[in-house]
Specification:
3 helices; 57% helix; 27% strand; globular; signal; Small secreted domain DUF320
Length: 100
Protein backbone atom coordinates (compact mmCIF):
# COMPACT_ATOMS: atom_id res chain seq x y z
CA UNK A 1 0.00 0.00 0.00
CA UNK A 2 2.84 2.39 0.79
CA UNK A 3 4.46 1.75 -2.54
CA UNK A 4 1.18 2.52 -4.25
CA UNK A 5 0.85 5.87 -2.39
CA UNK A 6 4.46 6.82 -3.21
CA UNK A 7 4.08 5.99 -6.88
CA UNK A 8 0.80 7.90 -7.08
CA UNK A 9 2.41 10.93 -5.39
CA UNK A 10 5.38 10.71 -7.75
CA UNK A 11 3.11 10.52 -10.78
CA UNK A 12 1.05 13.46 -9.55
CA UNK A 13 4.20 15.53 -8.97
CA UNK A 14 5.61 14.63 -12.39
CA UNK A 15 2.29 15.45 -14.03
CA UNK A 16 2.07 18.83 -12.34
CA UNK A 17 5.64 19.69 -13.35
CA UNK A 18 4.91 18.64 -16.90
CA UNK A 19 1.73 20.70 -16.93
CA UNK A 20 3.49 23.76 -15.50
CA UNK A 21 6.29 23.44 -18.04
CA UNK A 22 3.79 23.06 -20.86
CA UNK A 23 1.93 26.21 -19.85
CA UNK A 24 5.10 28.27 -19.49
CA UNK A 25 6.33 27.60 -23.03
CA UNK A 26 3.45 29.32 -24.87
CA UNK A 27 3.64 32.33 -22.55
CA UNK A 28 7.32 32.75 -23.33
CA UNK A 29 6.65 32.42 -27.03
CA UNK A 30 3.89 35.05 -26.85
CA UNK A 31 6.28 37.54 -25.26
CA UNK A 32 8.68 37.18 -28.19
CA UNK A 33 6.21 38.49 -30.78
CA UNK A 34 6.56 42.12 -31.82
CA UNK A 35 4.55 44.32 -34.11
CA UNK A 36 7.73 45.87 -35.46
CA UNK A 37 10.32 48.46 -34.75
CA UNK A 38 9.95 52.17 -35.41
CA UNK A 39 11.88 55.42 -35.10
CA UNK A 40 10.59 58.57 -33.41
CA UNK A 41 11.75 61.98 -34.63
CA UNK A 42 11.10 65.50 -33.38
CA UNK A 43 11.86 67.83 -36.26
CA UNK A 44 15.15 66.58 -37.69
CA UNK A 45 16.34 64.98 -34.42
CA UNK A 46 15.97 61.24 -33.88
CA UNK A 47 14.68 60.64 -30.36
CA UNK A 48 14.36 56.83 -30.59
CA UNK A 49 15.79 54.38 -33.09
CA UNK A 50 14.65 50.78 -33.56
CA UNK A 51 12.18 51.07 -30.68
CA UNK A 52 9.27 48.78 -29.89
CA UNK A 53 5.92 50.19 -31.06
CA UNK A 54 4.64 50.50 -27.48
CA UNK A 55 7.70 52.40 -26.25
CA UNK A 56 7.62 54.71 -29.25
CA UNK A 57 3.94 55.45 -28.66
CA UNK A 58 4.63 56.32 -25.01
CA UNK A 59 7.46 58.72 -25.92
CA UNK A 60 5.57 60.42 -28.75
CA UNK A 61 2.44 60.78 -26.60
CA UNK A 62 4.49 62.38 -23.81
CA UNK A 63 6.15 64.83 -26.20
CA UNK A 64 2.81 65.75 -27.76
CA UNK A 65 0.89 65.68 -24.45
CA UNK A 66 -1.82 63.42 -25.88
CA UNK A 67 -3.32 60.03 -24.99
CA UNK A 68 -1.21 56.97 -25.77
CA UNK A 69 -3.97 54.89 -27.41
CA UNK A 70 -4.32 56.82 -30.68
CA UNK A 71 -0.54 57.23 -30.91
CA UNK A 72 -0.12 53.47 -30.54
CA UNK A 73 -2.43 53.00 -33.52
CA UNK A 74 -0.31 55.41 -35.56
CA UNK A 75 2.88 53.63 -34.49
CA UNK A 76 1.44 50.26 -35.48
CA UNK A 77 0.42 51.67 -38.87
CA UNK A 78 3.93 53.05 -39.41
CA UNK A 79 5.47 49.69 -38.50
CA UNK A 80 3.20 47.63 -40.73
CA UNK A 81 2.80 49.90 -43.78
CA UNK A 82 6.15 51.67 -43.81
CA UNK A 83 4.43 55.06 -44.14
CA UNK A 84 5.59 57.72 -41.64
CA UNK A 85 2.90 59.04 -39.32
CA UNK A 86 2.86 62.56 -37.84
CA UNK A 87 1.61 62.64 -34.24
CA UNK A 88 1.69 66.41 -33.66
CA UNK A 89 3.66 69.54 -34.49
CA UNK A 90 5.91 71.21 -31.90
CA UNK A 91 7.87 74.47 -32.10
CA UNK A 92 10.94 72.40 -33.07
CA UNK A 93 9.11 70.50 -35.81
CA UNK A 94 6.72 67.62 -36.36
CA UNK A 95 6.81 64.53 -34.13
CA UNK A 96 6.85 61.60 -36.54
CA UNK A 97 6.91 57.84 -36.17
CA UNK A 98 8.54 55.97 -39.05
CA UNK A 99 9.28 52.34 -39.82
CA UNK A 100 12.78 51.40 -38.66
Amino acid sequence: MRIMKKSFAGAALAGSLLLAGGLAAPAQAANQAQSGLVNVQVGDVSVLNNANVGVAAQVAANVCNVAVGPVAVLAHQAATTGVSQTVCTTPTGPVTIAHA
